[in-house]
Amino acid sequence: MNTTSSTPETVTLHKVETSPNHVHHHVESPSCHLVTFDRSGSSANIFDAAALTELDHLLTVLQDLPPTTRVIFSSAKPRIFIAGADLKSLQAALQANDSDAEIEHYLQLGQSVFQKIAELPATTIAAIHGACVGGGFEMTLACDYRFASDDKATKIGLPETQLGILPAWGGSTRLPRMIGTPKALTVILKGKPYPAKRAKKLGIVDRIVPKEYLLDVARKADVRAKHRNLQWHKHNPIVTRIACQVARRKIPARTLQHYPALDTAIKTIRKAAHGSVESGYAEERQAFLKLAHTVTSKQLIRLFFLRESAGKANRKLTVNLTPIQRTAVVGAGIMGTGIAYWLSARSYPVYWNDIAVEAISRGMKHLNNEYQKAVKRRIMTRHKAAQGLNRVYPRCGMPQTKAADLVIEAAVEKMELKKRIFRGLDESSSPDTILATNTSALSVTELAEGLQHPERVIGLHFFNPVSRMPLVEVIAGDRTNDRSIQRAVQFVSSIGKTPVVSADRPGFIVNRILVPYMLEAAHLVEAGEDPKQIDRAMLDFGMPMGPLRLSDEVGLDIALDVAQTLADAFPERVTVPPRLTQMVEKGLLGRKSGQGFYRYHKGKPVDESSSGSIASTARNSISLQERMVYLMINEAARCLEEGVTNHAKWIDLAMVLGTGFAPFTGGPLRLCDTQGARRWLTIGVTCADEIDSRFSPSSLLIQHSQETSTFYED
Amino acid sequence: MRTHPLVIVDGVRTPFCKMGTDLAGVDAEELGRIAVNALLSETGIDPGIVDEVIFGCVGQPPHAPNLARVIALNAGLPNSVRAVTVQRNCASGFEALTQAAEKLAAGSGEVFIVGGAESMSRAPFLFSDRARKNWTQLFKQRSLGGRLSAMRRFRGNDFVPRPALKLALQDPICGLAMGDTAEVLARDFKITRDQQDHFALQSHARALAAQEKLAEEIRPVFPGLGVKDLVERDNGVRTPDQLKKIGRLRPVFDTRTGSVTAGNASQITDGAVALLVVSEAVAEKYDLPVLGTLREWHYSGCEPERMGLGPVYAIHEVLRKTGIALSDIDLVEVNEAFAVQLLAVAQALESQAFARNHLGQDRAVGSLDTDRLNVNGGAIALGHPVGATGARLALTTLKELHRRGQNRALVSACIGGGQGAALYLERNPS
Fold first, then answer.
1. Mutate to test the interface with B, among A330, A343, A361 (most CBs of B within 10 A)
2. SS3 per residue for chain B
């Protein structure tokens, strides 16, 4: 599917422009024809109806070529072969009255065009350089050969299931026939893009060629014979059936329930992998239509676009932003080390300091381990790891700010200490240097007070572990100027993280919404609920980890610290359960101390039998799950109300990326929209009446409920 | 004096560690990278303004030909910054400095990172020429029979390695080991074992007392590839307790009648030094601090058998060019290759006869009184990573001038193969 920004034009699925110009045909010699995809007015090639139709017309010409000729498919774009189907039009089609017919037509169009390619008498070769995903890859599956460039830009795969749908332009039918059902299931269910080397290993490309020679090799390669399907002993209904069973069993039941595309894809592949191609096509279409209408798919596609736009659309970019070239990180704790690793691995020089030589030394040791781990996991080569490590300039003592365009402070969360550091940074750095704090709870505005240049002070809230968490909250203090925010947003995008801009309010977005929910879990424990049941309720909802397990992972002392900040800021609704304070006082800090809400042995959880909720005093008519989810929705609504961010979508994106909030719901506010504000208001009112005022609904929730309006316009 | 003084902005070095100890896991180019990395982090300069990196190294690792270029790129200097490795044996570190000054005068650059790096721990072991031939024959064979017959040509001693370090420390002209040339000086100048040991003890005592001062120029080597734990300090310096047995050590080179021992010779050491040096105009433009200025220097040649006397000729020439008397120099640093060699240099400088016979003048050059000579100890206590030593002498001396509030320094070293080097440095900007 489309992995890049889609084109501005709005082409519906069935209407075709009068003179499209996306596919070019060049007769190189009587025996060699070159078809070049070059979508006009766009940096990406995609298959919308127009492009497909144009290709279709061209194929009617190519049909008459004798078997001795060859047809080469290539792309004129520098980094993209074909980025897949046109998701924007698909989204639009779903809104239409007769959406089923329209989508079916679109699917049939793609299937028939690719079938024509498969039936060409000439030898067909896809010369793949750049992203070749989704529908783009399905097109190449119809070719006899796939040659891929060894370039980094070349990524091949079928990401459809990641978006809650499945390959339906022959992908689910052809791939199993080509590489066998077990491998095809891996490619389709994981939805990962593969670099050329991995693709070759999987058997989805035939040759790897330097990109400069790609066309030349395609022209000259000795490939007269048509590709044949796998031999029967490798590809037969028995293998397929077993592989499908195994694949299904490997997926946790909750995941299957939350992501219907996985189950549907397995079933479809099982049927489409054998028998006639036409019946496979029909299975694909039927399954696709079913999935495209699910809420899950709609939300996943929305999130996909949202995430893509986050780097650009948070604020309008002005021209002439000085790009960040060199960075400095202050502090060598866990966060400092994580950030230093991430930045240096992404080509930024990092001047890194800590006051204590032991701290920076330990940090360097951990950093080195991170790189060695990356080499072991084949994330990078030994040389790349050495280069990354060499980009770090460790130092014991004061930060080196002269050389840096961006300083990220990651010291201990103490306002006085941070203020002292920032006074030093303010004096020693050029006024154009962005000074960022990686705080999770302290006020950026307060931190900037009294500095000569408070306008360049900003918050960059990375999440732990930095290498795995895709979100960075960009916090704008009251005096932070737009330019600094834009530079920070651009920087965060450049390191492959998703930026979400937040106003400088306690807890920003993620912690503000997450902490009341985690505290609620602790309240429930205090009231006698079984921790396992509480966590299970939220796992069932689709959270990646239960709130109590999460507290144990974060460390109860750290959780308490953040909770206290929020309790101070919102005393009327955030109270720290005494139990949590007691646990921290007793040294029960979670996984790191061996005991929190759960017990741990050498850092691994000990399996405990459920104690059951014998003495629960907390139950009412509302389920645990509803109660905890409600708190998140309600707090999210308050964030929007207070202007922590300017649109509901940023809150939803931050929650999904920052906490793993069930992605298929689209985020807390989208969930509220889909299920209706009234439902959640009722839950809130009931809880507020029966339990505590901390459940009092926000005025925005009440308003949407009364006016039956929604957080989103669409 | 020279028309284009070279401004030394700042410098740092790794700890100097005895061969086979804390830094033995790190190759020379990595030691150099660590030093340049620390220098960039210390000075905070934009690496893009550097014109060239010049590094001294005596035994360049075979896997890093042009070691300076490897250091430059690994330390994060842009691809456009050129780099050259220089080799003048024990004065390679000086050579890096003076080449920068010469390039500056010639208009080939104004900002240089210079220094030296040496891993004596990792000097390679070589095969004998016969072994090389046998291996080559073996590699050429394709058939099993051919291989077997090629293998039969090997003899047991083909597998005895020849340490490159040992080869490098032997003079190719006169065939004497460096230690043997020191024994020549002991005989020439009638310097006793006791005198040598006494000097060695003084070097250790001074280095021990100067630990805090030396720490100012040292930047720790952090754990990483080849380094398990933090390395913070030089590890060659011995306490008086550990030195009790120094008189009982056996002579290494002339085992029967000799006097040069492992205790009164320089240590074999790993380490690297990096200095940022610029033109006066650049220092002013970027408002850089000034550690000192290189104003004059000279390299002179002498007999390979008496290479230890090299400093006498070089110092004499530098003083002549500057017109400054030796007594007007505030600090003198002469590399302690061997205690006897340094004592011989001191005697020769004070000797009218030596001046008449070898320097072509009637009066002696002057006296090297001990309270301004190697005040913080020398290579006997701190070690002598050959390619890096020159740069360390300049760095240590300039830092000491600052601490003492003095202005003039002379640094010098003898050079294997029969040469001497001397540099005249000033603290004050002109």
1. A361
2. CCCCCEEEEEEEECCCEECCCCCCCCCHHHHHHHHHHHHHHHHCCCHHHCCEEEEECCCCCCCCCCHHHHHHHHCCCCCCCEEEEECECECHHHHHHHHHHHHHHCCCCCEEEEEEEEECCCCCEECCHHHHHHHHHHHHCCCHHHHHHHHHCCCHHHHCCEEHHHHHCECCCCCCEHHHHHHHHHHHHCCCHHHHHHHHHHHHHHHHHCHHHHHCCECCECCECCECCCECCCCCCCCCHHHHHHHHCCECCCCCCCCCECCCECCCEEEEEEEEEECHHHHHHCCCCCCEEEEEEEEEECCHHHHHHHHHHHHHHHHHHHCCCHHHCCEEEECCCEHHHHHHHHHHHHCHHHHHHHHCCCCCCCCCCHHHECCCCCHHHHCCCHHHHHHHHHHHHHHHHHHHCCCEEEEEEEECCCEEEEEEEECCCC
